[in-house]
Specification:
single chain; 9 helices
């Protein structure tokens, strides 16, 4: 190994470690978004419905803010000190229990933090510390938040999907980071229209709703980022993974056939895979 090669490997290792630590911090914030954003949305929707129906607003306390409110234990309500809120580390030091009430701390918090850190490192090692890499990080973090919320509530908030759609179009307009503007616009329209058509066809044939409108918007956003050429790959990967997971859950008797399964997480996972490895997968698909 030459000295230059050694420096390159050292630079990659330092960069990866820094991104990993930063990814843990971002993952901690994404846990807050996954937990609090749906609560705030439901609070706002209830208020809007009461106002529309001219019903007196109750004296209801607004849910915690995404940014300014301090974290607290969901079991005992005690505020969490900064040293008990260090991503992943505090969970291990506290032996997975609250310092105040000794109730177990959900495994989901460290899983989201660790997943965010690992995926962030993969993104930066793939694209490098470039504009593409930074943009891909934003997309990755947004998809993680959307996945967590959809798993919990079968909801893909417009506050995540629509900014992603417009950001993808603008990045490709200004810089052409992942696709041409023409491909991005067609991708956004085709992504929305494809699932919109599937939704209405399924409803016409069965009388049931097969997916939510948030799925349309998420696929439109992925099309805006990567272009229309990746839509077939994304839908195919998402459908395959969703079908396998659904069959496993049914076999384990955790879900019946009539129990809905969130499709957004599979779209998000397929979109992330397509972002990083879409070209070789499509090449292998078309030219095996």
């Amino acid at each position: 190994m030459t000295f230059v090669e050694y420096l390159n490997e050292l630079h990659s290792a330092v960069l990866g470690a820094a991104v990993f630590v930063f990814g843990l911090l971002v993952g901690s914030f994404l846990n807050v978004v996954i937990l609090r954003l749906p609560r705030r949305l439901l609070f706002e929707w209830r208020g809007q419905c009461r106002e529309l129906l001219e019903i007196e607003q109750p004296d209801e306390q607004a849910p915690a803010s995404l940014v300014t409110s301090r974290s607290s234990c969901p079991k005992c309500g005690q505020q969490i000190a900064w040293y008990d809120n260090i991503p992943l580390v505090s969970w291990l030091v506290l032996r997975m229990r609250c310092r105040h009430c000794s109730e177990p701390i959900s495994w989901r918090y460290p899983v989201v933090e660790l997943t965010t850190a690992i995926l962030s490192v993969i993104v930066i090692l793939t694209f490098g510390p470039t504009a593409q890499g930074l943009a891909a990080l934003v997309l990755t973090w947004s998809l993680i938040a959307a996945t967590g919320i959809d798993f919990d509530h079968h909801l893909l908030p417009d506050q995540i999907t629509l900014p992603l759609l417009w950001l993808g179009l603008l990045l490709n307009l200004w810089f052409g980071l992942f696709a041409s503007l023409e491909d991005a616009v067609i991708g956004a329209a085709a992504g929305y229209g494809l699932l919109w058509g599937v939704y209405h066809l399924f409803k016409l044939l069965t009388g049931k709703e097969g997916m939510g409108f948030g799925d349309f918007k998420l696929l439109a956003a992925l099309g805006a980022w990567m272009g229309w050429q990746y839509l077939a790959l994304i839908v195919l990967l998402a459908s395959l993974v969703g079908a396998v997971v659904g069959l496993i859950l049914m076999a384990l008797a955790r879900h019946g056939r009539d129990v809905p399964i969130a499709f957004g997480p599979y779209l998000a996972a397929a979109g992330w895979i397509a972002l990083l490895w879409g070209d070789p997968i499509i090449a292998f698909w078309l030219y095996p």
